[in-house]
Design goal:
By secondary structure, the protein is an alpha/beta fold. It is built from nine helices and 24 strands. It starts with a strand and ends with a helix. Bound molecules: flavin-adenine dinucleotide.
């Protein structure tokens, strides 16, 4: 039976769904109000925030894991210190949001009412390695990384499924660390990074091949354990198969009418759910966004801060519109000595990819994004 947790609605209640980059950004933004007082409830199943950007490097060096995780309770305590607001973390999963009743339901049928809802629920990966989960705690994620590190050490032949940045970075890391293992990448397309950095397919191919990686293009495979089935029905065995494709939007708690065809949340250009302006969306789960941290930090952030001031703080009378960037900005390390990348569509030389990402996978910047 549903148990309703009634809150004092004279104090404004804000619920944030999520416990990762976008949720922390949302929390910092809401806590900045000096004129109002909020009860903020952050709901997510993870007890640590996690710098998942570094997973390809963590797979070859588990000793770095501690530098990529931060206790959520400590992060929250530090952020709320000295403010007028109260923040509570509920370690749970949101199973339903009833927008008309302004109510959120979590596992075990617990209900929470809100005045404002911020959805930062992102996406999860089919493999446990790459992203925080919508239901399981961090152990699922970190435990899997350690488990795969051991499997990688033992394997002689490794297949990586997916030719996006996650697959390419992982192929580069494994081939650099273990030059004697046979690493094969199935890109599932015309070439590595053909979707995200189409002008860099040739340079990516040549950098991977220099490291001894075998690249198989235009082949949609299915996998079962460590066996791959090709489109012609033939099978291939590997000592280890690593899935590095497909992200699933975490929106099972919303009715389909609020979602686009892929399951991401439809909003106006100010990140509000149409007809429900008390619901604001941020991060990877935005349909109009680019599903990247670069987009979150450099494009979405100022639009989000502006709409929070307008809708929640009731300050200002102008709202800023999000414009989806047309050209890609991304850095893709291929091993420890560089990689490929683009800044607003402009080519990033190998040296700068090394400087900004491949030498340390930006781990020294993890704290800024997640605390
Ligand atoms: C290997 C890898 C490397 C990457 N590297 C880069 C990079 O270098 N640069 C870049 O720009 N981008 C990169 N990205 C993309 C980046 O990871 C995402 O943009 C980022 O994670 C989005 O953050 P988010 O907070 O929106 O969502 P997420 O990080 O997906 O977090 C979602 C949060 O919501 C919680 N949640 C989900 N469902 C529920 C629910 N039902 N109830 C409660 N809580 C829920 C989750 O537990 C989690 O806390 C990379 C991605 C991968 C996979």
């Amino acid at each position: 039976m549903s148990k309703s947790i009634k809150k004092n609605m004279s104090v404004e209640e804000i619920i944030i769904i999520g416990g990762s980059y976008a949720a922390i950004l949302a929390l910092k933004t809401v806590l900045s109000s000096k004129t109002k007082t909020f009860n903020i409830t952050l709901i997510s199943p993870n007890e640590f925030t996690f710098f998942n950007v570094a997973v390809p490097r963590l797979l070859i060096d588990n000793s770095l894991i501690d530098k990529t995780i931060f206790r959520l309770d400590e992060v929250i305590e530090n952020l709320q210190k000295g403010t007028n607001h109260k923040v509570t973390h509920i370690k749970s999963t949101v199973t339903k949001v009833e927008l008309d009743d302004k109510k959120v339901v979590t596992t075990n049928d617990k209900e929470y009412s809100y005045n404002y809802l911020i959805i930062a629920s992102g996406s999860r990966s089919i493999s446990p390695l790459w992203k925080l989960d919508n239901e399981k705690s961090n152990e699922y994620n970190i435990g899997s990384i350690k488990n795969f590190t051991n499997k990688i050490k033992q394997a002689k032949t490794i297949a990586i499924i997916g030719g996006g940045s996650t697959g390419v970075e992982t192929a580069g890391e494994l081939a650099t660390e273990y030059p004697n293992k046979k690493v094969t990448i199935y890109t599932g397309s015309s070439g590595p990074l053909s979707g995200s950095l189409p002008n860099h397919v040739n340079s990516t191919t040549s950098k991977l091949e220099k490291l001894g990686v075998e690249i198989i293009n235009n082949e949609r495979v299915t996998t079962k354990d460590n066996e791959i089935t090709l489109s012609n029905g033939k099978t291939k065995q590997y000592d280890l198969v690593i899935e590095a494709q497909k992200l699933i939007p975490n929106t099972e708690f919303l009715l389909k009418k609020y979602l686009d065809e892929q399951g991401f949340i439809k909003t106006d250009n100010y990140f509000r759910v149409p007809q429900n302006h008390e619901v604001i969306v941020i991060g990877d789960i935005l349909s109009i966004g680019l599903h990247s941290l670069v987009d979150l930090n450099y494009n979405q952030k100022s639009i989000f801060e502006n709409i929070i001031k307008f809708e929640i703080f009731k300050e200002g009378n102008k709202i800023k519109e999000y414009k989806r960037p047309k050209n890609p900005t991304m850095l893709v390390p291929i091993g420890k000595n560089g990689g490929v990348g683009a800044f607003n569509g402009w080519n990033f030389p190998n040296f700068l990819v090394w400087l900004f990402k491949s030498r340390d996978f930006m781990i020294p910047k993890a704290k800024d994004s997640l605390t």
